[in-house]
Amino acid sequence: MINVIDYVLKIRNKVTTKEIVVSYRAMTMDGMQRPLTTGEMRFDLEMANTDYLTHSRFILGIVGTVILRLNESCILDRIEIEQSANRLQLQVPNKLEFRSYVQQHDLLSRVAQAQSANGHQAVTVAIVTPFKLG
Q1: Residue 97: pLDDT over 60
Q2: Nearest residue to 36 via CA among 65, 61, 56, 57
């Protein structure tokens, strides 16, 4: 039997006067919070396709990439999206967009699920935007 490893994916959006930096870190949710994978993308602010970067498809693409990088014993349980404090907010996907994405890309077995009252499997991945001061 495979040991299941639940993990959280933290995505951070930082905008400066010259660039957009989007970084991500997948970490175990156990007491050790071991990093599983990390990455960073830098975009020149003037040359970046901000329409795409601020659309939920951009976040979903990062999520899909991370899921596929990790082995099948890793189950995505939570997504935290930390926004830039000043401008260029990333569009956070809603539950329906997220479920559609994982279904279309055949990733349902790689995300947290629970049995619903009617007997169907329900995706239970929490998508949150932590509130930060400053």
Answers
A1: yes
A2: 65
The confidence score (pLDDT) of residue 104 equals 96
Please state whether the predicted TM-score (pTM) of the whole model is above 0.85.
yes
Dump the DSSP string for 39-84: EEEEEETTTS-HHHHTSHHHHHHHHHHHHHHS-TTEEEEEEEEEPP
> What is the identity of the amino acid at 10?
K
| Chain mean position to CA 30 | 18
Is residue 129 within 8 Å of residue 81, measured between CB atoms?
yes
The C-alpha atoms of residue 75 and residue 114 are separated, in whole angstroms, by 13
Listed in sequence order, the residues at least 6 apart from 41 whose beta carbon sits closer than 8 Å to its beta carbon are: 21, 22, 23
Map out the domains of the chain as residue ranges. 5-128
Q: What's the rounded Cα separation, in Å, for the pair 49 and 105?
A: 24
In this prediction, residue 133 has a pLDDT band, given cuts at 50, 70 and 90, of low
| Domain topology for 5-128 | Nucleotidyltransferase; domain 5 (3.30.420)
